[in-house]
Design brief:
single chain; 243 residues; alpha/beta; two-stranded antiparallel sheet; 6 helices
């Protein structure tokens, strides 16, 4: 609120949008390492119940804080609003999010050095990567799309089909085989709410020949199942599959 005081200088860092609230905190702390006291242990900070309040600039009034009880807090509606409405029309740089990190006063005094000693902006090394990406002017490759689509996803609380207990597991999509005619559908809209959609304007670059999908094909043999699938049943391959 109005009782807080801004200290230090603004800094930039690159954070994965799929990150959890805890991972976002750790990324921010790593980026501002030079502002932390020398005897601070980063591993202890992640386990001591540190909970920074992350307020999004330009978000939805009354809902501007990133929630800490969802898997991907950077996909909430207040973030979409800030990304689409915070920049003026003359801006041509990469889309970015402005966040104010609110510290508890006692915790700040225990971890952060005196704000008056900080007069140089802190720029994380990931900013150079963001600059390089911005040179593409809102472009992505088809391989970037595939990497995101086939990325391994961690499920926090899923029911195991064997023991019927809730377990932490991972889910990963793969292709069984690729046909002669392979149709790719690109999503052009993101559902930001039940009644509002945001159009994606990213230009997708794709090869006109030589598309290699081998990295996304499911392996034909698994060392965990000794070549068998479906709880020990023999593995049956598709009869129309060609090498």
């Amino acid at each position: 609120g109005n009782q807080g005081r801004i200290f230090g200088s603004p800094f930039s860092t690159l954070v994965s949008r799929e990150a959890s609230h805890k991972q976002i905190q750790l990324d921010i702390l790593n980026a501002m390492r030079s502002l932390l006291k020398h005897d601070v242990d980063m591993s202890s900070m992640s386990t001591c119940g540190l909970n920074l309040r992350l307020r999004v600039i330009g978000g939805i009034p009354g809902k501007s804080y990133l929630p800490d009880d969802v898997d991907h807090p950077l996909y909430v509606q207040t973030v979409d609003k800030a990304l689409t409405g915070s920049e003026d029309k003359e801006y041509r740089g990469p889309v970015h999010l402005k966040i104010v990190v609110e510290w508890d006063l006692d915790m700040r005094n225990g971890f952060v050095i005196n704000g008056e000693q900080i007069d140089e902006p802190v720029v994380d090394s990931s900013v150079e990567l963001a600059k390089a990406r911005s040179q593409k002017t809102n472009r992505a490759t088809l391989r970037d799309c595939f990497d995101m689509y086939f990325k391994e996803e961690r499920l926090a609380d899923a029911v195991c089909p064997s023991c019927r207990r809730r377990q932490q597991c991972t889910k990963k999509l793969s292709l069984w085989s690729v046909p002669d005619i392979f149709i790719i559908h690109l999503k052009r809209f993101r559902q930001s709410s039940q009644s509002q959609r945001t159009k994606l304007t990213t230009q997708i670059l794709f090869p006109q020949n030589g598309l290699d999908m081998s990295a996304y094909i499911a392996p034909r043999f698994s060392t965990q199942t000794n070549g068998n699938i479906n709880n020990g049943l023999p593995a049956l391959w598709s009869p129309w599959k060609r090498s």
